[in-house]
Specification:
With 412 residues, this protein is α+β, with helices and mostly antiparallel strands. It has a single domain, classed as Cytochrome-c3 Hydrogenase, chain B (Orthogonal Bundle), CATH 1.10.645.10. The protein contains 17 helices and 13 strands. It has a 4-stranded antiparallel beta sheet. α4 runs antiparallel to α5. The chain is globular, with a radius of gyration of 23 Å. It starts with a strand and ends with a helix.
């Protein structure tokens, strides 16, 4: 239908379209797991986005009420399976809070090393997968190349590469390894012979040195890429008020300009882990941001993770330097049959995707009466609806990818 404008020389044409309901997922690669997005579209414009979950539900919390604490650790690995070490840590700290357990300095320092390596590995996947969502394949390969070395180091420490069950109640299952053969991937990247032997600490420091040099390449490939900026800057803008009202946390919250991190602002049982360490919490606006960037948009959420990656490298370096002189053992003995007091506790930790909380109720048995987990990704996903109103269909993967969700944590 032709529409006459104020200028008689210009005639606009209204292209009539029908409103459609489009299912995106649950098998779509850019939904980061088995997530179904129900989109109400008018042409290329999305008027409404409703996320549907439940395709991965595994009843982990109810199972936790029928198991002793150490037996429930493996189920936390499978929540955020890209940050299993951080899941182990949060659940272990909740049990230790309920039991009033104090850990030696060595166990606490070991946890900082492992948790921050886990944060680096998680953010590498987040960076690579986000590039893949937007059509850039190379960063995904590079990110997994680096992450593979962290998994090699984890395998030397605990024997597993994805579901670790390493950080446990009282500390860790094993001390950090001594002499190891350098991981094959690290040997190839640094020019060492595959059979070269060095301490686990030296191999980790060698990897961190290599990774720091690669970060500049990631920024060239994505952060400062003009196409990436057009797909992320000024899109999916989440004001600080919206982020807070929806209970968002982690890089999603800090990307909206809210300066909050549980490593600094959490409970003493958690914050004492990071006492004496130098690190900064990245919060926009950033001086180096492109002019198109708006605080709270996709680009800010992505860039917060990139800075956190560098900060975690610094934390691991500081903890590794401190570890040899720490006192005590790597673990306080904990029996499977230990009875939980008739009390309750709740504790949140700063996981790579946000604040992961564990709630426990003891009743004098080894198994808790109630065991619940509060997912950071669940709250972060809940803001999808308002974020996706009025955007183009092609913007949906960019917005959902910027939230960096893991469906295993949401469905638990």
């Amino acid at each position: 239908m032709a529409i006459q404008t104020e200028d008689p020389r210009v005639i606009e044409f209204d292209v009539r379209t029908d409103e459609m309901l489009v299912n995106m997922g649950p098998q779509h690669p850019s939904t980061h797991g088995v997530l179904r997005l129900l989109l109400r579209t008018d042409g290329e414009v999305v008027h409404e986005c409703t996320p549907h979950i439940g395709y991965l539900h595994r009843c982990a919390e109810k199972i936790g009420e029928n198991l002793a604490g150490p037996q429930w650790i493996p189920y936390t690995d499978r929540m955020d399976y890209l940050a299993g070490m951080n899941m182990n840590l949060g659940m272990s700290l909740a049990y230790e809070k309920l039991l009033g357990m104090e850990l030696p300095e060595k166990a606490v320092t070991l946890r900082v090393i492992i948790a921050e390596l886990g944060r680096i590995a998680s953010h590498l996947v987040g960076m690579g997968a986000y590039g893949l969502d937007l059509g850039s394949f190379s960063p995904f390969l590079y990110a997994f190349r680096e992450r593979e070395i962290i998994l090699d180091l984890f395998e030397e420490a605990c024997g597993a590469r994805l579901t670790y069950s390493y950080l446990t109640i009282g500390g860790a299952t094993h001390d950090l390894p001594g002499m190891i053969e350098i991981p094959p991937g690290l040997a190839a990247l640094t020019g060492h012979k595959p059979e070269t032997r060095m301490t686990w600490t030296d191999a980790t420091l060698l990897f961190l040195e290599h990774l720091e040099k690669r970060v500049a390449e990631y920024h060239t490939l994505l952060t400062r890429n003009s196409i990436f900026i057009k797909r992320t800057a000024g899109i999916g803008v989440m004001p600080a008020e919206m982020a807070i009202s929806y209970g968002c946390s982690g890089p999603v919250l800090r990307g909206s300009g809210v300066d909050f991190d549980l490593r600094r602002d959490g409970e003493p049982i958690y914050t004492r882990m990071y006492e004496g360490y130098n690190y900064k919490i990245p919060v926009p606006p950033f001086e180096e941001a492109p002019p198109e960037v708006v605080v709270g948009d996709n680009w800010c959420r992505f860039y917060v993770r990139m800075i956190e990656l560098v900060e975690s490298i610094g934390l691991v370096r500081q903890a590794l330097a401190k570890y040899p002189s720490t006192e005590g053992a790597y673990r306080v003995p904990f029996k499977m049959s230990t009875k939980l007091p008739k009390d309750e506790c709740y504790l949140e930790t700063e996981c790579p995707r946000g604040q992961m909380g564990f709630y426990l109720v003891g009743n004098g048995q080894a198994e808790p009466l109630r065991a619940r987990a509060k997912s950071s990704c669940f709250c972060n996903l809940s803001v999808t609806g308002p974020l996706c109103q009025g955007v183009l269909l092609a913007d949906i993967p960019a917005i959902v990818g910027s939230l960096d969700i893991v469906m295993g944590e949401i469905d638990r």
